[in-house]
Design a protein that fits this description.
The protein has eight helices and no strands. It is mostly helical. The chain has one domain: AhpD-like. It starts with 10 loop residues before the first helix and ends in a 15-residue tail after the last helix. GO terms for molecular function: peroxiredoxin activity. InterPro entries: AhpD-like, AhpD_core, CMD-like. This is Carboxymuconolactone decarboxylase family protein. It holds the Pfam family CMD.
């Protein structure tokens, strides 16, 4: 599959993506645990059907030491016993934050309260920003049909 656009070849997109990549780097450095970040990024990408981001976050998580079992079970996290209560709360928030049109009310108070039990305000802020960031990245990649399969861990990190 050929992508519809090469973002990096376009001056405006190149400038905007530089800022987006900086935002992504800041999120990676946040107090939100790295494993949680990768699980959330993967789950949001699965929901949205973004193959490029699924490729990226599966490989980044693996390079960071995540197990294949947990990565395979992210799509069915509710029934899986391999996630912590904190990770489950983050995944629930990520799902409702991604499926806003389906949820009607957005993120429910119950889901928010569960996340707030496990993460402080700084971590919650990073989690909300990450969900929004991943939805933006997914949509850009899907609209322009960015291909998956060739990503190398660390490729987009500066």
């Amino acid at each position: 599959m050929e992508p519809r656009l090469n973002f990096l070849a376009q001056p405006t997109a190149g400038k905007a993506l530089k800022h987006l990549m900086t935002a992504g780097a800041l999120l990676r450095e946040s107090a939100l645990p790295a494993a949680t970040q990768e699980l959330v990024s993967l789950r949001v990408s699965q929901i949205n059907g973004c193959a490029a981001c699924i490729d990226m976050h599966t490989k980044e998580a693996t390079a960071a030491g995540e197990t294949a079992l947990r990565l395979h079970l992210v799509a069915a996290w509710r029934e899986a016993t391999v996630f912590t209560e904190a990770e489950r709360a983050a995944l629930a928030l990520a799902e409702q934050g991604t499926r806003t049109a389906d949820a009607g009310e957005g993120v429910s108070d119950e889901v928010w309260e569960q996340a707030a039990k496990h993460y402080d305000e700084e971590q919650l802020t990073a989690l909300v920003l990450l969900v929004g960031f991943m939805n933006l990245a997914n949509r850009m990649n899907i609209i322009t049909r960015q291909p998956a399969g060739d990503y190398q861990p660390g490729q987009l990190q500066h």
